[in-house]
């Protein structure tokens, strides 16, 4: 059951697809107060209550015990103390033996989630502007609650199948030659690869929708060549449009009046990578259509995937703010006396980027009427995603295009995926990535993953290896790193062969993982779940923070610590462990429920599978297009007939019908003949 409560005058955020009439009764369960113009909801938490949700945010799967703030931010260098990341996903589930409740705030402005932070026994949720719709969801299980929320907000985005291949990326690739070298280094070593990302250096002066004529003399031919090698190019697009006379996107945007304004009606400008930029008013439909059509030359050049960046939006500085900082410094210079002023001096410059005064000076005009940006800040990235996705659909309605964004809001999960932003080459960020996955899924973002190896800082070989072992299972499997960091392509490392073998497991599992993903998307379920969803009555499982359920019957438990030779895994029921070393080299170990120490050398990683759930492995290959998805080895621990419905399609159909695409596989109970009840069966489907 879903109930809707309206406060103030909410705007249409495009988050919800189900039109519900607002309730006339007051909101139950919560204590409602109105601080200033805001709305504040409080709820007492029982000691055994756990909280899931908030999508992209730091800390555990269970969000209890910290304060989060929905305010999309460019936070390179985030840690467990960071209250706001790149996205705002205002959905939270309260779960205890006596309560199961979903709370969704459809609010485009800042929202604070004090979840047992100020008082450990109380959740206090504050909408700062108080114009919002609140939805209460009540169902009889966590899985049903997740499904009901997805019905409310719409089906998750479907990427093309090739987007499940391994993607290599690095900030700094600057020419066709360089990209060809990266490709060659992979292919020569038989490291599977499906795509290479082009970061901002492919553009002329970082101008969107341009490419450097010397470095990329014939992009259509380059893209064609890559496709012959079963590879695709995935260029980046930033939010800002450089304000340069004669630059077509700027000229057409200005002529159409499509940019965000200041209060006086002039275009708002701020510097980002291209220098001074104007910012498309994605909240306006005409601006979205204009922007979505700008992708056309790239699509016509054969590009089939994009990543959208800097769309919080990130602002390096505005002229006004820089001048203010200089004024402050000049004023201080004469009277500079003590250390206290040193802090003011530092602050004068460190507060220049992503400054609140700047955000407050931006205006949108969704329906002709000006709306101040800070009231709707969290929509910006989502509406950029919407503009792009709609543009792709206009260009080719019959083909899925890859799209993942840095910033997002619930609703954007229908139009694209997200990557988890600028993580670091830290073991703690490996764990954070794992913990973020199920909450992103709960909020509808199924196509997601982190920068494998870590974006900032220098990776070590073992950390990259362990990141890849998580990445084998994440829908977006991308190795990405920042300019000036240690080179992070697999082939740079002496142990590249073990890393290649790890990636080969992804390719052996790709048809199966794709099937699990598509089934999750098409049935409004989750691909990754906290263990609580499958074992709600098992208090150990409910509190497990370093393992995830995957698809219908699997569980992952990656090694998250340096120098570990294994780890403890909690098995809520009897399972089969597949301990992988490569696509062809793995152990099948039946394990009974309880805590188990699993020995895992650096080149080994496990997948756990419930009984009677077959896992299908193909022979692998170097691109998703080269896999034989008819011949499989099914492995299964079984004590009765085991069945699986394998989803297969052409990888591009944007409107697939689940039932038409399923091939039913049955392993009769007597397939397993050995003592542990483990079956290995060759299938031709
Ligand atoms: O200010 O395009 O998160 O993935 O490599 C940095 C350069 C801008 C931030 C993205 C990152 C990308 C980088 N971008």
Account of the 3D structure:
This protein has 685 residues and is α+β, with helices and mostly antiparallel strands. Helix 4 (248-256) packs antiparallel against helix 5, helix 7 packs antiparallel against helix 8 and helix 13 (461-471) packs parallel to helix 14 (496-522). It contains 16 helices and 39 strands.
Mean pLDDT: 97
Envelope shape: globular
Approximately how much beta-strand content do the residues carry? 25-35%
Distance between the termini: 40 Å
Summary, kept brief:
This protein has 685 residues and is α+β, with helices and mostly antiparallel strands.
Entry keywords:
binds ligand MIG; alpha+beta; 25% strand; 685 residues; 39 strands; 26% helix; nine-stranded parallel beta sheet; six-stranded antiparallel beta sheet
How is the topology of this model organized?
Blueprint: E1 2-7, E2 31-33, E3 39-44, E4 50-53, E5 66-70, E6 87-88, E7 91-96, E8 99-106, E9 111-115, E10 122-127, E11 132-137, H1 142-153, E12 166-168, H2 176-188, E13 195-198, H3 219-228, E14 232-238, E15 241-242, H4 248-256, E16 269-272, E17 275-278, H5 285-294, H6 296-300, E18 305-309, H7 319-335, H8 339-350, H9 356-360, E19 363-364, E20 371-372, H10 373-376, H11 380-395, E21 402-405, E22 408-409, E23 417-419, H12 427-442, E24 448-449, E25 451-452, H13 461-471, E26 477-479, H14 496-522, E27 528-529, H15 539-542, E28 548-550, E29 554-556, E30 566-571, E31 575-580, E32 586-591, E33 594-599, E34 605-610, E35 615-617, E36 631-637, E37 642-647, H16 658-661, E38 662-667, E39 678-684
Helix pairs in contact: 4-5, 5-11, 7-8, 13-14
Bound molecules: ligand MIG.
């Amino acid at each position: 059951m879903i109930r809707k409560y309206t406060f103030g005058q909410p705007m249409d955020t495009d988050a919800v697809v189900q039109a519900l009439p607002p309730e006339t009764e007051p909101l139950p369960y919560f204590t409602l107060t109105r601080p200033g113009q805001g709305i504040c909801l409080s709820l007492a938490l029982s000691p055994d209550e756990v909280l899931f949700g908030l999508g992209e945010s730091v800390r555990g799967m269970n969000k209890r015990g910290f304060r989060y703030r929905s305010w999309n931010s460019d936070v390179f260098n985030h840690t467990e103390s960071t209250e706001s990341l790149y996205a705002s996903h205002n959905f939270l589930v309260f779960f205890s033996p006596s309560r199961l409740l979903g709370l969704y705030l459809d609010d485009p402005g800042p929202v604070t989630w004090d979840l047992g932070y100020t008082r450990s026994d109380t959740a206090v949720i504050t909408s700062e502007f108080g114009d919002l719709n609140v939805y209460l969801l009540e169902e009889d299980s966590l899985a049903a609650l997740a499904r009901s929320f997805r019905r409310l907000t719409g089906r998750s985005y479907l990427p093309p199948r090739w987007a499940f291949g391994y993607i290599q990326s690095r900030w700094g690739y600057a020419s066709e030659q360089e990209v060809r070298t990266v490709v060659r280094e992979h292919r020569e070593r038989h490291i599977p690869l499906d795509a290479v990302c082009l970061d901002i250096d492919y553009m002329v002066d970082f101008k969107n929708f341009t490419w450097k004529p010397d470095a990329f003399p014939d992009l259509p031919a380059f893209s064609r060549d890559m496709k012959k090698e079963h590879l695709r190019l995935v260029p980046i697009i930033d939010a800002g449009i450089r304000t340069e006379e004669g630059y077509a996107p700027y000229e057409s945007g200005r002529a159409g009046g499509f940019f965000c304004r200041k209060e006086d009606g002039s275009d708002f400008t701020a510097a980002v990578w291209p220098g001074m930029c104007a910012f498309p008013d994605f909240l306006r439909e005409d601006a979205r259509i204009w922007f979505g059509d700008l992708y056309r030359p790239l699509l016509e050049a054969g590009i089939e995937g994009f990543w959208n960046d800097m769309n919080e939006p990130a602002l390096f500085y505005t002229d006004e703010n820089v001048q203010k900082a200089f004024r402050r410094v000049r004023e201080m210079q004469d009277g500079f006396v003590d250390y206290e002023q040193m802090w003011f001096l530092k602050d004068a410059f460190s507060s220049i980027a992503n400054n609140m005064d700047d955000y407050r000076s931006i205006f949108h005009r969704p329906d002709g009427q000006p709306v101040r940006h800070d009231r709707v800040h969290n929509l910006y990235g989502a509406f950029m995603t919407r503009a792009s996705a709609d543009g792709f659909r206009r260009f080719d309605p019959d083909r899925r295009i890859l799209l993942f964004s840095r910033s997002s809001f619930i609703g954007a999960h229908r139009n694209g995926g997200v990557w988890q932003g600028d993580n670091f080459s830290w073991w703690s960020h490996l764990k954070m990535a794992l913990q973020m996955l199920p909450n992103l899924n709960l909020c509808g973002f199924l196509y997601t993953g982190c920068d494998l190896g870590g974006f900032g800082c220098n990776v070590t070989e073992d950390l990259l290896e362990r990141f890849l072992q998580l990445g084998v299972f994440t829908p977006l499997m991308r190795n990405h790193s920042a300019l000036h960091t240690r080179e992070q392509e697999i082939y740079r490392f002496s142990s590249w062969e073990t890393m290649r073998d790890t990636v080969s497991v992804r390719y052996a599992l790709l048809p199966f993982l794709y099937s699990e993903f598509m089934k999750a998307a098409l049935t409004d379920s989750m691909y990754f779940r906290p263990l609580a969803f499958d074992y709600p009555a098992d208090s150990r499982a409910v509190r497990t923070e370093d393992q995830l359920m995957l698809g219908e019957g699997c569980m992952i438990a990656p090694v998250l610590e340096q120098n570990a030779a294994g780890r403890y895994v909690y098995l809520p029921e009897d399972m089969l462990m597949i301990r992988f070393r490569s696509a062809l080299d793995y152990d099948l170990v039946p394990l009974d429920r309880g805590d188990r120490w699993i020995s895992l050398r650096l080149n080994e990683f496990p997948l756990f599978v419930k009984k009677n759930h077959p896992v299908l492995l193909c022979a692998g290959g170097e691109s998703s297009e080269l896999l034989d998805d008819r011949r499989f080895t099914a492995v299964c621990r079984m004590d009765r007939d085991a069945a699986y419905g394998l989803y297969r399609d052409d990888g591009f159909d944007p409107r697939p019908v689940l039932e038409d695409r399923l091939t039913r596989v049955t392993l009769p109970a007597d397939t397993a003949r050995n003592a542990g009840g483990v079956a290995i069966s060759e299938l031709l489907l």
